[in-house]
Amino acid sequence: MSTGKIDLHTHSTASDGSLSPSALVSLAGEKGISVIALTDHDTLSGLKEFLLAAESMPSVTAVAGVEISVDMAGSEVHIVGLFVDPDSASLEELLREIRGNRDTRNLQIIARLREQGYMISLEDVLQVAGGESVGRPHFAKILVEKGYFETTKSVFESCLRRGGSAYCSRKLPEPQRAIDAIHKAGGLTFWAHPLATRGGELSSVRKFLKTLIKLGLDGVEAYYTSYTAQQQKAMIELANINELLISGGSDFHGTNQLGVEMGSGMKETLLVPEEVYLKLDEAIKLRKGNRLLDLTASTLA
Q1: Helical (H) or strand (E) element with 43
Q2: Residue 58 burial (CB < 10 Å; 0-12/13-18/19+)?
Q3: Which domains does the chain have, with CATH numbers?
Q4: Alpha helices, DSSP H, located in the chain
Q5: 266-298 residue pLDDT tens
Q6: Which residues of 171-196 are buried (b: 16+ CB within 10 A; e: fewer)?
Q7: Residue 216 main-chain phi, psi, to 5 deg
Q8: Could you count the other beta carbons within 10 Å of the beta carbon of residue 30?
């Protein structure tokens, strides 16, 4: 199989992206992207539309994914699952719990914003969000629409960033639960943008990675939209040393995150090699084959 550009980290309106799942596929076709993964936050709800749209576009291979935030020693870490079953009951059960925690946090944010004179309601936010996974970008968008701020960036800088006046934390699952749920759904697990969320500290990434590997992590996102060439090289070397799989993507959110393009990332410097997808495709086929052998063995036992 020969591929062109690939992007294994994108978001749709099912979470905090600005394009629908089917529109993502259309854009991928326009940009000459041959493999694209939809990895919405804490929801599988956009995957069926996404996969169906790809069926009518032979030039685009669609990979079903999800992105889950987990708590590691008080720090938020993101786990991306690729090649998951969109109908996985066990994965959906975990995601439903996480979205419930989001809902609790969202009510707290609304209360804090109203205390500061920003008159928004839950109905306002839900209408802007559209999907079932509601997050801070949706609050930022409604605050801009109501004229309280000029840009969503200024909203985060003023009150929604961690430590901001309206910021509220949410309860996150332990990484083991996310990794196990993704594996049970037939997927592969990756630590998303490690250097982007660990302050660029490679020593911190190494420490966290040791723990995640013990929990069953399959790989790391070594190619990412904001990585420097040096950071990308360091993550590839770290993956190879630990015999981990490699993934990569733009973290595309459409107009909800300006300056990041699908397939090419920030300042169009991202290029995920085709061999990345080919190795992942090989790994998932091998895993599915092993699972089939295990099921056959248990049936015959």
Answers
A1: none
A2: exposed
A3: 5-88+186-300 (3.20.20.140)
A4: 21-30, 47-55, 89-115, 122-129, 136-145, 152-155, 175-184, 194-197, 202-214, 229-241, 274-300
A5: 988 899 999 999 999 999 998 877 665 554 554
A6: ebbebebbbbbbbebbbbbbbbbbbb
A7: 105, 15
A8: 9
